[in-house]
Amino acid sequence: MTVLDLEQLSVREINYALHHRDSMESVTLVNPGGAHNLAVGLDWPGEVEIRGHAGYFVGGMNKQATITVHGSVASSVAENMMSGLVRVRGNASQCAGASMHGGLLVVEGDAAARCGISLKGGDVVVGGRVGHASGFMAQAGRIVVCGDAGASLGDSLYEAVIYVGGGIKSLGADAQEEEMTEADVVVVRALLAKAGLAEDPARFRRVASARTLYHWNADAQQEY
Amino acid sequence: MAIRREENSLYGPDVLAYIQRAAEHGVYDIRGLGAKRRVPHFDDLVFLTASMSRYPLEGYRERCTTKTVLGTRHAKKPIELAIPITVAGMSFGALSARSKEAIGRAATAVGTSTTTGDGGMTPEERESSKTLVYQCLPSRYGFNPDDLRKADAIEVVVGQGAKPGGGGMLLGQKITERVAAMRTLPAGIDQRSACRHPDWTGPDDLAIKIVELREITDWQVPIYVKIGASRVFNDVKLAVKSGADVVVVDGMQGGTAATQQVFIEHAGIPTLPAVRQAVEALEEMGVYGEVQLVVSGGIRTGADVAKALALGADAVSIGQGVLMALGCNAPRPLDGGTHEDVSADYAKLGTEPGYCHHCQSGRCPVGVTTQDPSLELRLEPTEGARALRNYLNVLTMELTTLARACGKSNVHHLEREDLVALTVEAAAMAGVPLAGTSWIPGRRSSEPGGW
Predict the structure, then answer these.
(1) What's the complex ipTM?
(2) Does residue B451 register a pLDDT over 80?
(3) What angle do CA A190, A191, A193 make, to 5 degrees?
(4) Close Cβ partners of A86 (under 8 Å, ≥ 6 residues apart)
């Protein structure tokens, strides 16, 4: 295992080392100190452990790698992730998993506003609550929220599906609660298992698009 | 009794038709291209070419350098272009893959860059373009790290001159299976291009976002920030503060594939004052020359290019003019002679050559802004590339002709002092004197250029 110390190396040096690794199958970053842009742009099936809190965009545009943050993260963790796994042991700030295309993001604590915004694939699983406008304009993929969801959940949803275990403060424009089918329960059970969260999938509710905003002239009604 | 026709300046035929259309259909207009109404523009400026007090260079003979370098601030590999005329971002989706290929081939032939657009990078575009700028847009359609690392520069699009503050629309009729797959959305539905980025919410965040893009690309390539011209002075300063290598300012005459007409005609400021404000912002921050400025929005001719450079731009970017070189609004498509006249297809759109702005329809009669398999064959990439290459060469020749006449052996030596304005409005907006006077409206008499 390789240990890289943020007190000894700059973010640029660390990312460069991760991009141009030789045989490091497992890397531990220590003393992250909330630094931004840690472990971004990886394209390598190894493991990165971050021992502490991380700043914005940690794990951004990840491909293949498994990144674990043993702390909390600032905005936009795992933004535009293509594949792999990013796990946050603590809480995440806003825009967690923004515009992800694939892979799995697990936030074991809470995630703030706009979690899963513009999601284009992959899965986001949040052990706690999510803030307002989560799932905004989400196009594909799945978001599982074990706790409560804030206001305007799933606003302007496309084809992504949101599963909520707790309460929903309000639904956003064009989002609707739908019947939770057995297939949905299977999906949630599998995602919870992948995330390592012991929750009962049967208590989740399904939120998806009503598809009334799929054509622009819908806004002529001005009713949403 | 004789019929009296008293013109109503407030409710003319266009306004009447607009109201009647709104009343009948209950929806507003969405269309393509840019603002059609007259606003102060580069036509309102002229050059004070050399005579007794200046020494000109010989016509088309003496050397006049056009080399342009963009992105010198932070990138390890700045963009080196043969000319200061670049091709603006236009999406695959709005344009056909054949159009993108033709653009790439022409840009490569003349030594300049082309730019992707909403919807991602196509292999045709990457292969045909020697220098390709990859846009990072609010929608992030098709955005991925593999293409990011293939790019020669990255352009973070904050806004667009045709619709600053507004998102875009790609109507369902243009969403083929291929376009839909690139954008991760169902085919056939209208696709909203978001007006805000999903992962950052202000200039402080953008500064971190830009570093993320640099980290992913190992600080190799320049990062541009493109803004639609509205509060240009402050926006340019914030873009610089955010770490941009290059700022792209798109004036209100800039085009779009499709947006609400109310945006196109009523939002943002013209390109002319936008250039001046952008230059003033760079100068005030002490980064003029260090952060390059690219200007777009209604650049059509070599004279427009020369005037933009004289006002302080390092390069220009062209969208609509490029489409027109590829056949937009021409009666005959560039299809190798298969069609002599497609005016009937314009008529089906309710228009005729010279007046068309129906890019949003997907029924482009000349095959430029379409995804229709039969229509897109109306643009033959080789012929399109030849036409566009010619157009870009003409712009360059006109640019150097004017520069030589101003006594410049390098087009980047054109300066504001070489220009005067023909109207009070243009003088005020461009910050150059009204012709025949030393008066720059809006300047105090004690200021430089003041009267």
Answers:
(1) 0.95
(2) no
(3) 65
(4) A58, A59, A62, A66, A67, A68, A69, A77, A78, A103, A104, A105, A106
Q: How far is B180 from chain A (nearest CA, A)?
A: 11
Q: Taking a C-beta distance cutoff of 8 angstroms, is the pair B256, B264 a contact?
A: yes
Q: Which of B184, B190, B192 sits opposite A140 (nearest CB)?
A: B184
What does the pLDDT look like over B315-374, one tens digit per residue? 999 999 999 999 999 999 999 989 889 999 999 999 999 999 999 888 999 999 999 999
* Averaged pLDDT, groups of 10, chain A, 224 residues long: 95 95 84 98 95 98 97 98 98 98 98 98 98 97 98 96 98 96 97 96 96 70 46
Is there a contact between A65 and A48 (Cβ–Cβ < 8 Å)?
A: yes
Distance of alpha carbon B434 from alpha carbon A50, whole angstroms? 62
A148 touches chain B (CB under 8 A): no
Distances (CA, A) of B129 to A158, B121, B137, B257: 33, 11, 20, 21
Chain A interface includes B410 (CB < 8 A): no
Q: Taking the CB of residue A17, how many other CB atoms lie within 10 A of it?
A: 15
Treating both helix axes as pointing N-terminal to C-terminal, what angle do B232-241 and B271-285 enclose, rounded to 10 degrees?
40
Q: Considering only alpha carbons, which residue of chain B is nearest residue A10?
A: B215
Using one digit for the tens of pLDDT, what is the confidence trace for B231-241? Answer: 999 999 999 99
Q: From CA B231, how far away is CA B214, in angstroms rounded?
A: 27
Chain B interface includes A9 (CB < 8 A):
no
Q: What percent of chain B is predicted at pLDDT more than 90?
A: 76
